[in-house]
Specification:
Blueprint (H helix, E strand, L loop, with lengths): L7 H7 L1 E8 L3 H8 L16 E5 L2 E6 L3 E11 L3 E8 L10 E9 L5 E8 L8 H29 L8
Antiparallel strand pairs: 1-7, 2-3, 3-4, 4-5, 5-6, 6-7
């Protein structure tokens, strides 16, 4: 994304990341993971326990090498939808603009679910598109890794979904 000029429409599209993955587990089991603020702060493997504490209504996830990340719960609609503000990282403090991370859990007809994630609001992180596009770049690749990690974690610890032939 270096030295590239984008149209306003292209920048609007780049303001969000949308990914999804099919998981062979019941919605309730996927919900148990998704409802954990910052479960995706890891090294590509979801752990059963994470270093999580609360400072008022802010969840603080500590990664051993990456530092602390802060999240505020926006909305929880069990077991279908969860939204969090990613309000701080080792590179941003809580007083700066943040992205919104939303998860949807959709049951599939043959069993299991589709887990969808949308992270939006990158353009609010900096006035210069080059700066926020750089921050977005790591997350764009990261969501592919994290959804695969979620699938492996949930399927490993979940009973097989019902409704399969």
């Amino acid at each position: 994304m270096n030295d590239t000029t984008y149209t306003d429409a292209e920048l609007a599209e780049l303001d969000r990341i949308a990914r999804q993955i099919d998981i062979d587990a019941p919605a309730e089991r996927v919900w148990e993971l998704v409802v954990r603020p910052g479960w995706y702060i890891n090294d590509g493997v979801v752990e059963a326990e994470q270093d999580l504490r609360y400072e008022g209504d802010v969840a603080v996830v500590r990664h051993p090498s990456l530092g602390e990340f802060r999240f505020r719960t926006v909305e929880l609609d069990k077991p279908r939808y969860a939204a969090f503000r990613w309000i701080g990282t080792p590179f941003r403090d809580g007083s700066t603009p943040s992205t919104l991370v939303e998860f949807w859990i959709d049951e599939r007809a043959g069993g299991g679910v589709t887990l969808r994630v949308v992270e939006s609001g990158f353009s609010s992180l900096a006035d210069d598109p080059a700066a926020w596009l750089k921050q977005r770049e790591g997350n764009d690749k990261g969501w592919l890794t994290e959804l695969a990690a979620a699938k492996a974690f949930v399927e490993k610890s979940a009973p097989a979904p019902t409704g399969r032939p």
